[in-house]
Amino acid sequence: MKRNIVIAAVTAAALIGGGTATALATTGDDGGSARQAAGTQLSKDAQDDRDDRDDDAARAASADVTASEAIASALKHTSGTVVSAELDDEDDSDKVIWKVDVLSGDNTWHSVSVDPSNGKVLGSQTDDEDDAAQVRAALKGSSVTAEQAAKAAAGKGVVTSVDLDEDGKDKSWEAETRTSGGAEQDWKIDLTSGKVTADRSDAQDDDDTDDQD
Predict the structure, then answer these.
(1) For residue 174, what is the enclosing H or E element?
(2) C-alpha to C-alpha distances, 149 to 72, 77, 113, 172, 189, nearest whole angstrom
(3) Residues 39, 77 within the same domain
(4) Where is the composition biased (Basic and acidic residues) (predicted)?
């Protein structure tokens, strides 16, 4: 309907003067140009997401040390409670390492870097975090460690991260896995039974993203 109105206006303006008609015609094209630009940006974002997934799949495939092995290695270096482990870039470089967060007995946070090719600890640094009490409260009564959660999730694919979800009512371990084909899936691991279930909220988020694409 709007397009017909613009055409009618242009036609009427053409009877009066060519300059006005040109101006109106240009105005009518702005909406189409904006839509085209938005579509191009969405396509670029979708491609960037695919590239990121491909990169993560390549990282997972290149790691000889599993998540559970990286956690075990970090604990030999720094005793305490592992709260998360992630296969990630080192300072946004091409080098990939395991980053393992350990909460020590004196409530000090340690970020331990583990070589994914041989399991050796590359270094450790303390972090200024203040949520130690929240983490310990979430793990109270838990019988499943991060290492055990990583082993449980490994049956679903290559584990690229495991992390404690201490927010909300249903506290659990969360793990991300990738298949050899690059497919990504998030899982929840029960803190007491070790049961692995698909993260339905993550699946819903993926569906929403696909609908936008």
Answers:
(1) strand 172-178
(2) 12, 20, 20, 10, 6
(3) no
(4) 168-177
pLDDT band of 1, cuts 50, 70, 90: very low
Q: pLDDT at position 91, please?
A: 62
Q: Which residue has the tokens 């584990």?
A: 159
Rounded Cα distance, 124 and 120, in Å: 12
Neighbours of 43 (CB within 10 A): 11
Residues 6 or more apart from 123 whose CB is under 8 A from it?
Answer: 112, 113
Q: Which token pair is 127?
A: 């972090």
Cα separation, 97 vs 199, whole angstroms = 25
What CATH number did the domain enclosing 166 receive?
3.10.450.40
Residues 6 and 110 in one domain: no
Read off the pLDDT of residues 138-174 as tens digits, 9 standing for 90 and up: 999 999 999 999 999 999 999 999 999 998 788 999 9
The two three-digit tokens of residue 89, written as one number: 């870039």
Could you list the beta-strand ranges (E) of 11-103: 81-89, 96-103
For residues 195 and 165, state if they share a domain. yes
Mutual orientation of helices 67-77 and 146-153 as an angle, nearest 10°? 160
